[in-house]
Structure formats: C-alpha cells, structure tokens
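Lay summary

Proteins are chains of building blocks that fold into shapes. Our project writes down both the chain and a compact code for its shape. Here are two examples, one after the other.
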Amino acid sequence: MRILSRTAPTFALLALIAAVACVSTRETRPTGADPLADFKQRVDTYMELHNRLERQGPPMKTTDDQAAIRASQQALAARIQAARASARPGDIFTTAVATKLRQLLNPELRGTQSAGTRASIREGTPAEFTLKVNASYPENAPLSTVPPNVLQVLPSLPEDLQYRIVNRHLILHDVHANLIVDFLYDVMCDKC
C-alpha cells in the first residue's frame, strides 16, 4: 500500500505536466493563422537582423568605387551568414506561406494565358545555379526582372529585399548583402 500512495502523487504530477505541455504546444502553434501575416513577421524578423548587423559595420559613404562597394557588401554578407548559420529553406517561405504564394502566383505564371509573362521572365534569367539559403547570389549573374503583374500579387517587401525568379524558382534576395535569404521551388511551369 505504501508504494501505491507514493506513486499516486507522481502520476498526478506527470498528468499535470502533460496537460501543461499540451496547452503550451497549442498556444505556440497558431491554427488557421494567416500565412501572409506569418510571412510578413518572418521578413520583419530577418530585416531586424539585417539592419542590426548593417549598423555594426562601418557606414558606407557614397562612392563610385566598385571595390569599396563590394567589400562593404561582402562584410555585411559575412555577418548575416554567421548570424544565420543554421538557416534552411522554408525558414521564411514556410509550407503554409509557400502554398499561399503558389495560389497567388498560379494565374500569373502557369497556363497558356501567362505565356507572355513567362517569356519576359526567361529573357533576363541567369543560367541555372544551385540555390542555397544564405549563399551569395552569383556576382556576374543577371538579376531577372519580375513583371509588375507578378509583383502585384506578391506581398510587398522592405526596400532591401527583392523577389527574383531564377529559372522556375522564386527567391528572396537581400540586395545590400547580395544573399539568397530563402527560395521556393517551381513557382513557374517549365513548359505550359
């Protein structure tokens, strides 16, 4: 009987811990949350990091010296890469965000009605390169233009971030650091 009386409080404590864990998990995992609001929050968090790390470097003076501009850009990129060493695809383009963005982009980038848009994107797209989060955008690769009709359906971005389409994939490009912040595969069909 003594053993049973000692285990009863232990079981009650374990049950209480399990109940608290379930409530905590539900509170931190929003159900039905707006993916675009989540995307904006993730972009804002990235930009807070970017701005903080940009302030840590020497202020960039207005110059035409390409070497000085590149050195400043590479220094900022190195600080961001170190701070985001564990960054992975989907950190910003989460599954829910990716689903929503594809829904928004499909009318603009898939099907026969969007052939002109796809052709204009392909005109300026760089040769294929390996997409990697936190990697530099290839220095000599052209930056594809994203047509206005595509930009209109995408959430707006802060000044230092831009959308780019590389082949069929959407990337989030940090302009000042020349980094690939995140990417989303296959937003545009190859042969529609």
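And here is the second example, written the same way.
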Amino acid sequence: MQERKPSTRDTRDTTRYGTDIYNKPALAKLLKNLVKINDLKWLRILYSYPEHIDNELIEIISAESKICNYLDIPIQHAANRIRKLMNREGKKLELIEIINRLRKNICNPVLRTSLITGFPGESEGDFRELMDFVKSVEFDRLGVFKYSREEGTPAADFDGQIDESIKQRRYNQIMEIQQQISLKKNKSYVARELDIIIDEVDKNYAYGRSRYDAPEIDNQVLIEDTTLKIGEIVNCKIKKAYEYDLVGEIK
C-alpha cells in the first residue's frame, strides 16, 4: 500500500464531504438529512481521517440510532516520524485524544483502523512504537497492509526501503496482536442479542453481520438457518465467538 497524499486533498476522506459544494465540511449536515428517510435502517461512515472528526459529527453519531456507532479511522502509523514521512496530519498524542473523545461521547463505539508496515525508513523502534500503540488502544477492527513501492510516488525514491521479509514479519506480528484483541472483543458478545443483516445464504448457513461490522472486511455471524433471506434483518443471540467470526441463533 502506498503513502497517502495530504488528507485535505484526499477525496476518499468522508469527513471532507461538502468542501467542494459549501467550501466547508458538511458531513454532519448530510447525516441529519439522511436519518429522516423512514426506510433507511443503518448508516455507516467509512474512511474518516481522525484529525477531521469534529464535535458536530460526534454529536450526530451519538444522537441518531440509525447511524452505526462504528467509525473507520485509517491512521496508517503511530510513530510521529513515520507519520510525517507519510504526509499524515496529527501526532500520536492527538490520535489518542480523538480516540478517547470518541469512546467517551459515543455509546460503545466500534473503531476500525488500517496500518502500513514496512514504510521506507521504518526502524525497529518505530515498529515497536506501533505495536505498543495497537496493544494499548485495542481497536475493535484492524487491517494491515505491507508497503508496496509504486513508481511515481514520493516514497518510491526514499532511502531506507525495507526488505520484503521484514515487512512480512512485522505484518505477522501486528496481526498476531490484533487476533488476541479481536477474540477478547468478540467474546464480549456471547449471550448478547444483536440485530443481524443477512448477506449470503448457502445450503448450510446464513451469513450476516451486525451494525458493528462493515461488509466484506469485518466479522461474520454464522446462523444455522437456511430459510433466511438476503437483506433481511433478524435478531440473534450470540452463542460462540472466534477471532473473526460469531455464531448466533435466531431469538
């Protein structure tokens, strides 16, 4: 995965919605209108740079039950030196501050992030700092990418390109840490009831996900009921938990 351009120019950042229309961010304004749609059940906000999440956005997420208390905040790295090389805004302490603010002001928020290992110049010390950050923050969902050198990007010409074997080792270490965190988080759902939207049905199971999971990248809930319909939302009691899957039964 290559480095990002400065987030003020990244049109993928949902918190920047409205800057091309109103000359200022207007995601909260958009959400206030979307929640008025009667047939709309869940709204999920994906790919939001943490440094652009303001109090107005936090307030609307907290106040509106249709908005999933789930935020995808790609941080890429925690070490300030590497974040600067990546052209990312904000320092580690600022990331911690926004994460604490989200957890304080939104009821049981589920936080997803994505990271890059093996960025040019990433030392063992930088990587240990990233591991310590992952351990302490305990993201609910986390994805990791190994840096890929891409012609034409600034980082392609940086000194300190990392060997592929080191990238892979660092990738594995982060995923091992997150696997344990994910298992602990998932076990907290056992015996709870969750609304599950059905995504797929085969001859043995229905596969769905809760409001805490985005399609194709997060947890699946397996339900031993092949009569369910795709798109249907059902209430389930969670019976078992694994690192990245839950098992439920219709309540």
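What can we say about the second shape? The two ends are 42 Å apart (CA to CA).
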